[in-house]
Specification:
single chain, alpha/beta, Rossmann fold, 2 domains, 6-stranded mixed beta sheet, 10 strands, globular, binds ligand F0G, Threonine synthase, pyridoxal phosphate, Ser/Thr_Dehydratase, TrpB-like_PALP, threonine synthase activity
């Protein structure tokens, strides 16, 4: 019986950097591309969700972590370090365990979701809470890696982008070609960089033999930042980024110029969405599509909906929205009503009639 082997074995021919490296994998990747009928109807296009919450640690970070930790193992590293808004730390911690390495993570104090914090601790990482935001954490992580024998596994590590580009290959393999538009949330901007690289490498490539590709065209890249943390939209770093979408609460993205290149080379755009738009998209995905994501992930869909409202979505276009992390990472948002109230479950006594009444089945 064939099981998905993880992104390094599955795309070995497209990851030359990894040649000869020991493969450290939790069988990441191979995530579903889910047709989103209600969202398609809403925006007047053919929309698919690349559900990255179904990776081993619940986010897309695992694609780049299998490659980063495998490269670290190749270099003989015993310890890895990262700065994180949560998901990178969860992923680094898990893959470090698999590789038998120690892991240190720097996170902004009080600004990472409980699920992610629990993961880093469960996997035995040394968690350092920094009085400062992600950008400050990344500064410290870079300095540590420069001065001490510890390998940096943030997306400034080239192996991270290499691994993450495989998501584009999977999209093309699933659709038989590239989509017309690809929507992504943007924080530190590694992922939009990786997707764009993946699409370019997979386009018109005669070496794609045993797969449905190659793609015959490139998608237009649409990136979306949270309005309170939108340096790429504003055109300058933001000192105090703020958003409820803590995953993308970043004021000075490390892959700034690569994100701008992805935007411009693809003829795309990077725009901002408000926290309200993010939460509305989060609710739409759970309640109308059956797909539970964390708020940061919903920025791609919030951006698509706003774009449709602004008349920017060509009728019938084939669109992929990546939803980057699982809803269980940061579940508190599901328990809020649209107007910010708390959801209180209906209590019923132990009999079928009162339960039926609560369900509207009985008058
Ligand atoms: N979505 C989620 C769920 C994320 O965790 C992140 C980034 C992004 C989107 C944005 O991706 O940074 O490549 O533009 N999280 C990082 C972390 C910063 O530390 O987990 P990006």
């Amino acid at each position: 019986v064939h099981q998905w082997r993880g992104v390094i074995p599955e795309y070995a021919d497209r990851l030359p950097m990894l040649a000869g490296a020991p493969v450290v994998t939790l069988r990441e990747g191979g995530t579903p591309l889910i047709p989103a009928e209600r969202l398609s109807e809403l925006v007047g296009a053919e929309v698919h969700l690349k559900y990255e919450g179904l990776n081993p640690t619940g986010s897309f970070k695992d694609r780049g972590m299998t490659t980063a930790i495998s490269m670290a193992a190749k270099h003989g590293a015993k310890a890895v370090i990262c700065a994180s808004t949560g998901n990178t730390s969860a992923s680094a911690a898990a893959y470090a365990v698999k590789a038998g390495m120690t892991c240190g993570v720097l996170v902004p104090e009080g600004k990472i979701a409980m699920g992610k914090l629990s993961q880093a601790i469960a996997h035995g990482a040394t968690l350092l809470q920094v009085e400062g935001n992600f950008d400050a954490c990344l500064d410290v992580a870079r300095k540590l890696a420069e001065s001490y024998p510890i390998e940096l596994v943030n997306s400034v590590n080239p192996a991270r982008i290499e691994g993450q580009k495989t998501a584009s290959f999977e999209v093309v393999d699933a659709l038989g070609d590239a989509p017309d538009i690809h929507c992504l949330p943007v924080g530190n901007a590694g992922n939009i960089t990786a997707y764009w690289r993946g699409y370019r490498e997979y386009c018109n490539d005669p070496q794609v033999s045993d797969r449905p590709g190659p793609a015959t065209h490139l998608p237009v890249m649409w990136g979306f930042q949270a309005a309170g943390a939108a340096p790429l939209v504003k055109g300058h770093p933001i000192d105090d980024p703020e958003t409820i979408a803590t995953a993308i609460r970043i004021g000075n993205p490390a892959s700034w110029s690569q994100a701008i290149a992805a935007r411009d080379e693809s003829g795309g755009r990077i725009d901002a969405v408000t926290d309200e738009q993010i939460l509305a998209a989060h609710r739409f995905l759970s309640a109308r599509e059956g797909v539970f994501v964390e708020p940061g992930s919903a920025a791609s869909v919030a951006g698509l909906i706003a774009s449709a409202e602004a008349g920017l979505v060509p009728a019938g276009a084939r669109i992929v929205c990546t939803v980057t992390g699982h809803g269980l990472k940061d579940p508190q948002w599901a328990l809020r009503t649209a107007d910010g109230g708390e959801v209180v479950p209906t209590r019923v006594s132990v009999d079928a009639v009162s339960a039926a009444r609560a369900l509207g089945l009985e008058g």
